[in-house]
Design brief:
Helices cover 27% and strands 25% of the residues. It has 64 residues and is of the alpha+beta class. It has one domain. A hairpin with a 2-residue loop joins strand 2 and strand 3. The mean pLDDT is 91.
C-alpha cells in the first residue's frame, strides 16, 4: 500500500497532463489547499516545480 506522501507526489505529477495540448483544460487554477492559501501549503514548492505560477487568486498552470 502506498503512503500518503507517495500518493500526493503522484497526484501532483499528474496535474500537467490536464492542461497538456490534448488535455481537457487550457488552464488550471488552485486557490486553496486544506482551506488555506495555496502559497502557504506544504506542496507549494512541488507545484511551482511542475510549472504552476503565482497569480492574483492562487497558483495557475497554463497549457503551452
Amino acid at each position: 500500500m502506498a503512503s500518503d506522501a507517495a500518493l500526493l507526489e503522484q497526484a501532483v505529477a499528474a496535474l500537467p497532463s490536464l492542461v497538456a495540448p490534448r488535455g481537457p483544460y487550457r488552464e488550471l487554477r488552485l486557490e486553496r489547499i486544506d482551506r488555506g492559501p495555496v502559497g502557504e501549503s506544504t506542496i507549494a514548492a512541488a507545484l511551482t516545480g511542475i510549472g504552476f505560477r503565482s497569480g492574483y487568486r492562487g497558483y495557475v498552470l497554463r497549457s503551452s
